[in-house]
TrEMBL record:
This is Peptidase inhibitor family I36. InterPro entries: TAT_signal. Residues 1-24 form the signal peptide. Keywords: Signal.
Length: 149
């Protein structure tokens, strides 16, 4: 389903770009715009899912795992196969250990305790760690995604 939306989205984007328009709708206001260093530089896409408004966020790679819960030891329920700005999210949540310290997800030299909620390419809902979002710093939340906790 998400792949079909992406194909339709990409085709519509090509038509609109030829006409000098974009699918993003009106430019976000200064207060809603993501900073250049904001993870994923998320922007509302004007659509709504079962879990709220959708935000397109940039990923620095494809084949990103989607976890059942916002913890690294949870099962992977699917993947986001495309990187870049092909994926949307509905919110974010910070994960904590039992002693109420942040539960970090590590990937190479990067780490983050913030997770974003989305639908994997197989149609299952789950969580992606913000370490996969393009830009941002270690353990930085998105300034745009709403709370999903």
């Amino acid at each position: 389903m998400k792949t079909i939306r992406r194909v339709l989205h990409a085709g519509a984007a090509a038509v609109l770009l030829a006409a000098g328009l974009t699918l993003a709708g009106p430019a976000p206001t200064a207060s809603a715009a993501a900073a250049g260093s904001d993870p994923g530089a998320c922007v509302a896409n004007g659509r709504t899912s079962a879990y709220g408004p959708q935000y397109v966020c940039g990923l620095w790679r494809g084949n990103v795992p989607v976890y059942s819960w916002p913890y690294a030891n949870e099962p992977v329920v699917g993947y986001l196969y495309e990187g870049g700005r092909a994926n949307w999210f509905t919110g974010q949540c910070r994960s904590y250990n039992n002693n109420l310290t942040p539960a970090y997800f590590h990937l190479g030299g990067y780490y983050n305790s913030w997770w974003a909620y989305t639908m994997a390419d197989n149609g299952k809902w789950g969580w992606v760690n913000l370490v996969y979002f393009a830009g941002g710093d270690n353990d930085q939340a998105s300034a745009v995604l709403p709370s999903a906790c």
